[in-house]
Structures are given as C-alpha cells and as structure tokens.
Amino acid sequence: LSNMLTFRLVSATLFLACAPIAALFFPYAATIKEGIAIATLSFLAVAITQVLTGYYQKELRTIVIATAEILGRLVLIGGLFLSIHLASGLRGALLAVVAGAATTAIINLSVAHARVHFALAFDRMIWRRIVVLSWPIALSIFFNLLYLKGDTIVLSLTRTPAEVGLYGAPYRV
Fold first, then answer.
1. At a CB cut-off of 8 Å and minimum separation 6, what does 9 contact?
2. Which distant-in-sequence residues (6+ apart) come within 8 Å of 20 by Cβ?
3. Alpha-carbon distance 126 to 109, whole Å?
C-alpha cells in the first residue's frame, strides 16, 4: 500500500502538472488558466482516493468509501453555497471542488492509516511491477480521454467559454 500510494502520488503529480503548463500555451483567459491549475489539485486528491478504494474493496470495507464520498460531497455543496454567497466566481467554485475531493481523500487516508501503517515508500521492484501491470490501462485511459475530450479542446480554440460550456454540459449529465 505504501508503494502504491507513493507511486500514484508521484505519477499523478507529474502528469497533472502538465495540464496547467499546457494551458499556458493556449489562448485562454487568465481566469481559465488559473481554474485549470486549481482543478488539478482536486484530481490529485481523487488519484489518492482511487488507490485507497482498491484497499477498501480488498478489505470489504466499502462503507468507508461511501461515507468519505458523502462527506466530501457535503463539503463540496457547502463550499458551492459559500462561493455563491461570497460571489467568488469560478475560483470559489473550483476551490469548493478541491475542498470536497480533499475531504474525501483525507477521510480515506485517516481511516486506512488507523487500520494499517503506511508511509511514502520507494521499492524499485514493486514500482517496476506496478508499471508492468498498469501500462495497458494507462494507455487505454489516455486514448479514452483523447477520444472523449479532444473535441472540447479543439472547440475551446474557436468558440467562447460559454459555448464550450454548453457543448460540454450533456457529458456531465
């Protein structure tokens, strides 16, 4: 678990750092670029949660996953209401998303750490095995992402953010 969490943290950080860097090369407004950087933090929290989800499934303790998810969503909703009340716009809404995802990750980490000791770890053989076993899934996720989001990225280069938002809304439903 220590090696899996560390591997996921390192790999997610490296790949997710590409998003705000790549955004610098697109003709997006500064607000959108800032939003991409903020949203990246929520994806990092989700990446940690995904590893712990595997642990809880193995231990048949999915109640922890569900409870953490519900509490994280409550934080998200509370944060969104606060963001609306303070009129903090996109930044506030995205910070609420980050707070919700971080809450879920922290709860999952706390409960798991109470059950089993783990820390950051690097075992070359384990990391190598992780890469060997997971590269096909990583590659399929990459192509799936390209397939599902490529149109939105291209559209964002030729249309307004409002139009891109309207185009992307049905995906969320």
1. 44, 47, 48, 120
2. 33, 36, 37, 40
3. 21
Q: Which helix (H) or strand (E) holds 59?
A: none
The Cα–Cα gap between 138 and 131 comes to 9
Q: What is the pLDDT of residues 148-158, one digit of tens each?
A: 888 888 888 88
Structure tokens at 40: 């990246």
CA–CA dist 136, 30 (Å, integer): 36
pTM of the model: 0.79
Per the CB < 8 A criterion, the answer to whether 130 and 3 are in contact is yes
Query: Tokens standing for 119?
Result: 């820390």
| Structure tokens, 83 | 């963001």
Q: Are the C-beta atoms of residues 48 and 5 closer than 8 Å to each other?
A: yes
The encoded tokens of residue 160 equal 């307004």
In angstroms, the CA 51 to CA 117 distance is: 15
